[in-house]
Amino acid sequence: MIPELGHFALALALALSLAQAVLPLIGAQRRDARLMAAGPGLAIGVLVAVGAAFAALLRSFAVNDTTVSNVVQNSHSAKPMLYKLAGAWGNHEGSMVLWVLILALCGAAVAGFGRNLPSGLRARVLAVLGMIGAGFLAFVLATSNPFLRVWPPAVDGQGLNPVLQDPGLAFHPPLLYLGYVGTAVTFAFAIAALIEGRVDAAWGRWVRPWALASWSFLTLGIALGSWWAYYELGWGGYWFWDPVENASLLPWLAGCALLHSAIVVEKREALKTWSVLLAILAFSMSLLGTFLVRSGVLNSVHAFANDPERGVFILALLVITMGGAFALFAWRAPSLAPTGLFAPLSREGALVLNNLLLCTIAAVVLAGTLYPMFADLMLRAKISVGPPFYQATVFPLALPLILAMAAGPLMAWKRAKPWPVLQRLWWVAAISFGAIALVWLVQGKPVLPALGFGAALWLILGALADVAERIALFSRPRAALARARGLPRAAWGGAVAHAGFGITLLGMAGMGLATERLTAVSPGESVSLGGYEWRLEGVRDVTGPNWTSRRATVTVTRDGAPVTVLEPEKRNFALSRQSTTEAAIHTTWASDLYAVMGEEEGGRATLRLHHNPLAPWIWLGGAFMALGGALSLSDRRARVGAPARRSAEAARA
Amino acid sequence: MSASTSRRALLWAPLGLAAAGGVGFWAMLRGMKDGSYDPRGVPSALLGKPAPALTLPAVEGVDTPGFAPDALASPGSPVLVNFWASWCVPCVVEHPQLVALQRRGVRILGVNYKDRPAEAAKFLARHGNPFAGLVADADGRAGIEYGLYGVPETYLLDGGGIIRWRWAGPMTPDTLSAELDPLLRRHA
């Protein structure tokens, strides 16, 4: 009964979404206030309906309802509750329901928080969100119904891929979807602006918080996914330039460009056409990622079950949304006249450079991701585009971007002079060059890690220099604290996010110096790596709730002093006849000691040991970037209504 | 062309690019249905053709014999040809699957790719030896003839010596159950 109710709720949500797509739009065209006012109510109705469907799905997984085909395929009664619930969105059908739920949440948020928006703009934004929601709900109902029943009921579920039974992965998809779907809202604003033919500072102020929120969630989602790959896959790497990883990086890059160009729209009313195009591109990249991952056109460890039928449906959605949006853009964009002018050397100029470089990186990653597929299609050639390609193309583009990241915030709007910027950054540059030289001298050959350390320091210290300048720390230190308190949160956010990227670079540079060793040892034997002695004490059997494992005990010492005990294991999941390697990681913050257990043969165990300098800072940097986004989001100016409401209240008083 | 018309043309460019991409994806999906497009790394050049002969010596220091160049011509029953190396980490990941296949009675011929014989022998002593025959491709020439993508890489030959399947990268338990086992049954 409950699954049928869930199914019905989805159908109801589709009907409401269709109404949301049509009524407010007609209302906005006819300037009919009553039709426009239907939008918010419908958006909240869609949220309630999709929420009910999602709750029904969660319940089916929680009680292990084996008459639901999705539960049978993806769950098992012996699984811990967290993974039963996470299993609800760990598969194609359930994850689509989560996707639609988040979209409905965004729609309701626009309806709820958007009271200060011009009513026409709000109606059109809600209508576009309604169209997207209707498209995806139709997709779920037509090709991926999560509530399909099986009869007779199965004895028990068939389990979930054990690699996916992990807290990191339980929260990775929701965060990533929050990011993906957030781009749908900026997209809706872009389309609404194109229909109205008007982009102004208010539009920029409205788009920026959504772009910021979506970008922050994408940052967290990507960082969490990368961390998961690092500790769970047991390969010792953190980013593999896998097509699915690239699919999440593309909207991140486009969103990052958008949230910077939206600043220019807000402050200077320039870059309007460009910002609208970026908003469309960011959502297109999200949809493209969905298509690539779920249609089976590419080969990846992360891809969902392949089904060309589904692929055709998503492609149709993609063609309608992107084709419609780009056609509307080509038709209406000429009416968006730029007003603010600026010199090449200015804050705007730096932001344009940032946009160009980010978009070029995105284009390179997109080309690297799609090229093998198109080469296969047209030339019948199997080509793999791997890390060497991305390293050769992305790094040279990232370098000027990093240089501009520290200098840009110190430049004045409209027209900047080079001398004051240099004056404030010379010590940062000197320390960075010193670090490059030092690392290069100590470590020898590889140039890239040394450059990475220099770039990281440049960004972190550059962010410090920026804050110091704003609060006049050096010129008038006494009032600095008061000024720091008065500094807008957006300025803090920008500095924290830029420094966060520097911290991530620091971790990446450290990983560039990582060492590893594959070895077979008997109990009692030890090997040395990275200045540590690693000694295998023994291997024993361990039994968990739905697995058995062989667990090794490795004691790590440095100069005779104990550091830690690592327990890597190899788990066997009897039910799915799969085994996973559970890497053991000990972090000293200066480095990660990382051990993976391999096969055993004749009393010897294969161990793969890694020494990863500064590794944890890669993901901590990601957290800092998201924190920067959140700080910026909490700025009073981001809540558009605040000043308007206050002045209205003042007028009333 | 005046500046404003070229600007207008530029605004249409995203639509044009997206349309071209859309047509490509459509062709891929069509190809997946009729089998002409397969994202899972199969070289169209060798599939359905006789496997290139391997004129290579046995690996020194390993008990496993080599095999004659015509061993692949018509083996009589399905055979796997596995390219591997002791220096390759994914090969360690794949090895348990090869051992499991051998225990189930599947004949596996190994090609030790650009490896030192002593290292290869140590690898097999440590991880088990699933190979019925083993040859050394010291300079990687056989790899070029097969259009090798990397190691490990596995080819399935049917009883007539025709290449039916190719897997680039390590075979996982999933690969065996989802891809290889149905093919082994079909060609047995």
TrEMBL record, chain A:
One of its GO terms (biological process) is cytochrome complex assembly. Pfam families: CcmF_C, Cytochrom_C_asm. It is found in: Cell inner membrane. The keyword Cell inner membrane applies. Its main location: membrane. One of its GO terms (cellular component) is plasma membrane. Residues 89-295 form the Cytochrome c assembly protein domain. GO terms for molecular function: heme binding; heme transmembrane transporter activity. The chain crosses the membrane at residues 6-28, 35-58, 96-113, 125-143, 175-195, 207-229, 249-266, 273-292, 312-331, 352-374, 394-413, 425-442, 448-469, 490-514, 614-633. Residues 315-636 form the Cytochrome c-type biogenesis protein CcmF C-terminal domain. Required for the biogenesis of c-type cytochromes. Possible subunit of a heme lyase. Belongs to the CcmF/CycK/Ccl1/NrfE/CcsA family. This is Cytochrome c-type biogenesis protein CcmF. It comes from Muricoccus pecuniae.
UniProtKB/TrEMBL annotation, chain B:
Belongs to the thioredoxin family. DsbE subfamily. This is Cytochrome c biogenesis protein CcmG/thiol:disulfide interchange protein DsbE. InterPro entries: Periplasmic_diS_OxRdtase_DsbE, Redoxin, Thioredoxin-like_sf, Thioredoxin_CS, Thioredoxin_domain, Thioredoxin_ResA/DsbE_sf. The lineage of its organism: Bacteria, Pseudomonadati, Pseudomonadota, Alphaproteobacteria, Acetobacterales. It is found in: Cell envelope. Keywords: Cytochrome c-type biogenesis, Disulfide bond, Redox-active center. It comes from the Bacteria. It comes from Muricoccus pecuniae. One of its GO terms (cellular component) is outer membrane-bounded periplasmic space. Its main location: other. Residues 45-185 form the Thioredoxin domain. The keyword Disulfide bond applies. GO terms for molecular function: disulfide oxidoreductase activity. It holds the Pfam family Redoxin. GO terms for biological process: cytochrome complex assembly. PROSITE patterns: THIOREDOXIN_1, THIOREDOXIN_2.
